[in-house]
Write a structure and sequence with these properties.
The structure is a homodimer. In chain A, the strands form three sheets. The first copy, chain A, has a six-stranded parallel beta sheet, sandwiched between helices. By secondary structure, chain A is of the alpha/beta class. Chain A has twelve helices and twelve strands. Chain A folds into three domains: about 45 residues, Orthogonal Bundle (434 Repressor (Amino-terminal Domain)), CATH 1.10.260; about 130 residues, Response regulator (Rossmann fold); about 130 residues, 3-Layer(aba) Sandwich (Rossmann fold), CATH 3.40.50. Chains A and B meet through helix 4, helix 5, strand 2, helix 6 and helix 10 of A and helix 4, helix 5, strand 2, helix 6 and helix 10 of B. Chain B binds a DNA duplex through helix 2 and helix 4.
DNA sequence: CTGTTAGCGCCTTCAA
DNA sequence: TTGAAGGCGCTAACAG
């Protein structure tokens, strides 16, 4: 595998390697003539900077690593896409790693990334233990959390950019209320997820304030998949549904509800209204058209990268700090007036 | 951000930095005593190898990059997961990048990766132009293609590991024949995809040999999503379906067919049988239970990594060469006897 | 078993 | 405008 270096080019051009380095880094202190010659040579010989060497020397790399709990949830897949697009635009590249905060070997992953001197880490998690983990590492590498926001957990506050789950829950409750619903269920509440807890809390509070009756349907598993939603909904349908609307903790859960509803010949939204959260792409499909809350992934991801980059330039400012993005209501076809 | 180096440890331990390096790399030539002392110090001061320096010095990194056309297709998401698990087990890490062979700036991505001296690249693609692209870069970095296999395209042969699409197509045809079907449709044939072309060709050939009538329903778009499947199926249902079975080019397409069928009150498998290809996780869900061909992602990914690693150790052997993994039939609930 | 000496490829003063 | 020299952190002979 050929490996033409800065030195080779220097020799070829009859200059020193520092001159080549300068040219490559766009220093103004290079005569137009030599610059041209060097550039030509680089092109001709297919020179390619060795980023390892460059990063080593510069003390920082252009790789941002993101850790996420699995690409199987389309939400993450969609977010990573946006993340990469924006990061590239800002001159960085994304290294995707699987990992959950609860994994016993999660610290190995952090060590590995730190060992590679990544510019920063974006941790996707809504685990309660995430802040603690971050605090343990944030003095060794810039980290920003994506997916938790809990003012109440002040002592555990860390740098974070996230959907405003409280606002989301409120919007949902108000929307359903406006449609005339008075008895609703929050389906899929998962204790281990801070996001879900917040959504649920805010939804419930608002709903009750408005005078609605709300029932809670917890999700005892550790993930929120279509499957889980399907089983929860089945239970609820078997018990006999008293409510006129369901607010699912996320779109995947909502899709499961839809599947179960079909099986029970329950029509949405005629028999019951359904709302999700996340706006995953499936939710927009013609045969689905799920009404949901859009976290504005693009903004969210750009905000996250931006936040990291800002702090990269001013490490001393790298302390706790939360950036919230407001979700917006996306009315489609699964909610009806009662 | 603290940065304790090998030298610091050396000083602290009162030895030279090479001794530290040796201990860290598990050389046998270190006395138990000093080894212990050094290790303790490393632990105490939170020493972390600088992988950049290590890779630079050693001339090779432990990062394998994989390029894929989007995480939105669950197939890729699932594959990447397996890929990462196995790679990690073999001491490598995966860097995920988005990119399609047809992208105008795809060579920039290759240059970037080469610049980072990644150990190798795994390119996920079934584009006809993939082999050419690979040939252009394979003398600069080890690349293995994941997703194409076309013996006919001999001149374009490159290192590849892939599902045996021909076998898959044949299995499908034989299975449907065995169930009594005599008129079938291949739905979602996408010209730009070599995989799909092969599946289709083999399916059609086998079916006709067995005396079945097969109709082709091409997919003129550039991707294979639920959405596309939905629209194709809708068309076919509107035209009036003469056939008793549908073989979809992949599971996503098949899911779209299921959605359309529901809308048309066509029952699967009572009114029509349906088969997919890929075995994405959704396909296994209780409300879906799609009969499909399982590419055996685990084997496939392990084979891919293995292939790359073998060649890494013996670069001179890095020429064309194809490794095929046989898909296996997964009978679930969407195919019936006629 | 251990220390010394050279790099790996690049960037960055400091002089010239 | 350019070159020489030193260093980023680590590995890898080569002597002892």
């Amino acid at each position: 595998m050929s490996t033409v270096t800065i030195k080779d080019i220097a020799r070829l051009a009859g200059v020193s390697h520092s001159t080549v380095s300068r040219t490559l880094n766009g220093s103004p202190n290079v005569s137009e003539e030599t610059r041209r010659k060097i550039l030509a040579l680089c092109h001709q010989y297919g020179y390619q900077v060795n980023q390892l060497a460059r990063s080593l020397s510069a003390g920082r790399s252009d790789i941002i690593s993101c850790i996420l709990p699995g690409l199987d949830n389309p939400l993450f897949a969609e977010m990573v896409l946006k993340l990469e697009q924006y990061a590239r635009q800002r001159g960085y590249h994304i290294m995707v790693c699987h990992g959950r905060v609860e994994d016993p070997d999660i610290s190995q992953l952090f060590d590995f990334l730190i060992g590679h001197r990544v510019a920063g880490i974006i941790l996707f998690s809504s685990s309660r233990q995430a802040p603690e983990l971050i605090q343990r590492y944030m003095n060794r590498v810039p980290i920003v959390l994506q997916g938790i926001y809990d003012v109440a957990a002040a002592p555990a506050a860390v740098p974070a950019v996230t959907t405003d789950n409280l606002v989301g829950g409120r919007i949902a409750a108000e929307y359903l209320y406006g449609l005339g619903h008075r008895r609703v269920v929050y389906l899929g509440m998962r204790q281990s997820s801070v996001s879900h807890s917040l959504r649920c809390e805010s939804f419930t509070d608002t709903a009750r304030q408005l005078g609605m009756a709300v029932r809670l349907m917890p999700n005892e598993t550790l993930s929120s998949t279509i499957d889980v939603g399907y089983h929860l909904a089945k239970q609820i349908f078997l018990d006999g549904l008293q409510e006129t609307a369901i607010f699912a903790s996320c779109d995947s859960i909502a899709l499961g509800v839809m599947a179960a509803a079909k099986e029970f010949h329950i029509s949405i939204p005629r028999d019951v209204s359904l709302m999700g959260f996340d706006n995953i792409s499936y939710a927009a499909y013609p045969q689905i058209r799920l009404t949901t809350l859009d976290p504005c992934k693009k903004e969210l991801m750009e905000g996250t990268v931006e936040y990291l980059l800002e702090r990269l330039d001013a490490p001393e400012r790298f302390g706790p700090g939360i950036r919230l993005i407001r979700p917006v209501l996306l009315e489609r076809s699964t909610c009806g007036r009662v």
